[in-house]
């Protein structure tokens, strides 16, 4: 987190219907529209972690009997399929290997097979570090008359997210990744087309907290604000400050910074003799899944790095459990200092297990990309 | 908010799977058990505002075809009925006038009529300031083989909540009322009996984020923690600090303080010629619904008090819209200073509309109760 975001969290709590707070709500909505490239979408922060955005998208756009095509190439696609089943939808999953992007050809095949209400996929798979082609997948959805749901939890703020250019229908994210605000809120965008689909529903969404119509009666702001939930005031102060920080730097500048830090980290990892899980062309700069070398106790490496360097490296999930480490370079942690710290800590932990690695060479390789 | 709670929000964010954070999670669970009088319940804070607790209780305990009896004596009973319908339940509402407590005789009649899975009611109606008899209502639920759901959003920390003594099955609350932490979390307790009922469900709960089994795979802590949602770390720092503050004061001392501040406020209001909506025996000390005198522009009073005194008074909801003001004396705002501030501001705003009131007499009446 940026110290400015942490400081913002401590501002005095005011009422969720206070006019001063309502001005802040409007600021946040406008900032999210800009960040998501969504000038015509309704953009609001949901009052719960990123998963709430996923649930809001699924539960508002699907009702019993609807067909949903869900691309699964990691942990979060699987989660969407689970939720769509709870919404009463007929769920068709399109599977790709963990670490690979979603294959548009397979998705098209699934869309062709029957009329489909929703195509859902993950833009940036946090469990693998793979980036899928959001523009191509949203285009397929349009072509076959489906609404698109795009998970941008890990992408937003780190790589471009452009709802208008993609013509995406529902986009959601989290605050704790590249926005560097604490976890607990889920930025959410919905197209006019998706809003019309909700208005035409036969039954109410199965989730009250994430019911878009009720949410907008509070967040919409036209014709006054009707109480729905009590907005998490202080968390929203933090999100607001993180958006101010991002626009101070500039969105494009932030994307370039993430890309550069990734290149430096990747160069250092390569110099250490380590390999990344994902092919270069589909890699996310902000989430680096590193293959655990043979004979290395991966949990011991994470524990060492956490205890000796106060640095947390993520474990592998699902089929990648024990096989990869996941290194985040997100928002305020995408800096040269963090890249060097991480490489230093990782080399030390590997060396402690007898892995041959020359820390000086590793840092030199990373520094060459930072020059 | 207490300054200590606000300061806690700014502590450095650590990972939601970090061992240090997991120790904090265990502390919070134990503190909630103590606060809710629920040593044998599973107690966790849900990562969203109080409504999430309501949704978790309804969606986990009800499935399609179940009969639910829901007592409605204000805005929040109505919300529970809406949610129960979304869960697919057969919903029977038992209505009482807004401002009155739930009538156990009517509830018994509804329970008698057919086998019932759940009885749900609001302990402390935030929309009216009425307190219902939780012990009697939970006892009725047991008698007729139903599980009880008790909304304690406004009661927890302000008046006794005793899950074990009531033999209540699901209890939920919010952090922004008498706990004086920012909005955004929902303390939640579930009995062993309710957990067994969830284990016996025929289909999955319709809400993924509030799915109790999934929540406990992260919060349960036995056999390790499986990632479900990303816990709102900084908000949980705030909740933890608010619980520390409450136990420093002592639960009983906090209840006595709320009762005393209410008596002082009520004496001042009476001296001002104002009346409370709720009969004395069913009043909540922490939520005082004041009847708007004839000829007074109630919105203008609230605006005056907010602009001139930085003090927010709540408006009436539903059938009470325009008819009452709602004055909270909760947690850190249940102090003699707040009582005097509120009475002073209210008298000034009323006088500005030509209402005859002697501010000095009003404060004297309040002070007599504070001596």
Automatic annotation (TrEMBL), chains A, B:
GO terms for molecular function: transaminase activity. Keywords: Aminotransferase, Pyridoxal phosphate, Transferase. It comes from Phenylobacterium terrae. Gene3D superfamilies: Aspartate Aminotransferase, domain 1, Type I PLP-dependent aspartate aminotransferase-like (Major domain). This is Pyridoxal-phosphate-dependent aminotransferase family protein. The keyword Transferase applies. Its cofactor is pyridoxal 5'-phosphate. The keyword Oxidoreductase does not apply. The lineage of its organism: Bacteria, Pseudomonadati, Pseudomonadota, Alphaproteobacteria, Caulobacterales. PANTHER family: ALANINE--GLYOXYLATE AMINOTRANSFERASE, AMINOTRANSFERASE CLASS V. Residues 13-305 form the Aminotransferase class V domain. Belongs to the class-V pyridoxal-phosphate-dependent aminotransferase family. It comes from the Bacteria.
